[in-house]
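Incident log, support desk, overnight shift.

02:14 A customer reports that sequence design results differ from what the structure should imply. Their input is reproduced verbatim below. On-call engineer (initials T.W.) acknowledged and began investigating.
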């Protein structure tokens, strides 16, 4: 016999999956709790029993989406041949992740200047995992002797990530939306790859 908690967990998983598909295809702004309940043949009251509002439901779906991305990153830690491969992997993986979930992220376009704390927690976790992956790549190159040992790899990677974020901002400097339009995504990716190449050359220049 299935326990009550297991039944509730299964229902919650089904809700999260249905909501993910709605957010993915129609975006946050064009998805209603009524539609999600309808997709599941569930009463709206029961849906609200599990999730008190749409923003909480979105945050829980985002955790699932982010966890999939984090798993991709974690599988590659300490597997790179060199810094170029590591930095290109981070830039390209993030680019593909955003494209794959582009409509899902319309929540950011609507709320980027006032994101809820629960969303910022997820964003911070993703940022930290990306940072750790690149720090490990730099440390591995130091051990190989391909770059000079550095005392502050965390600060160096943080600077790079800030610079890559700045590339996005410069691409949007004359636009009202802070989250990039689809048409600007490839331009941003190319500029970030160029920025990382310059950054790598700077690190390698230190080798005596």
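02:41 Re-run completed on a clean worker. Output:
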């Amino acid at each position: 016999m299935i326990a009550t908690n297991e039944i509730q967990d299964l229902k919650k998983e089904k809700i999260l999956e249905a909501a993910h598909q709605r957010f993915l295809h129609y975006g946050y702004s064009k998805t209603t709790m009524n539609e999600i309940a309808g997709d599941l043949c569930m009463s709206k009251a029961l849906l609200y029993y599990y999730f008190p509002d749409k923003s909480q439901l979105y945050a829980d779906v985002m955790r699932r989406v982010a966890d999939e991305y984090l798993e991709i990153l974690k599988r590659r830690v300490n597997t790179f041949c060199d810094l170029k491969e590591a930095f290109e992997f981070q830039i390209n993986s993030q680019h593909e992740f955003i494209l794959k979930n582009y409509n899902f992220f319309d929540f950011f376009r609507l709320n980027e200047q006032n994101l809820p704390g629960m969303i910022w927690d997820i964003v911070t976790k993703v940022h930290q995992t990306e940072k750790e992956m690149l720090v490990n790549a730099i440390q591995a190159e130091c051990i190989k002797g391909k770059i000079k040992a550095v005392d502050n790899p965390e600060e160096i990677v943080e600077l790079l990530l800030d610079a890559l974020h700045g590339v996005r901002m410069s691409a949007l400097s004359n636009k009202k939306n802070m989250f990039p339009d689809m048409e600007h995504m490839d331009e941003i990716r190319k500029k970030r790859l160029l920025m990382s190449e310059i950054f790598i050359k700077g690190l390698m220049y230190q080798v005596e």
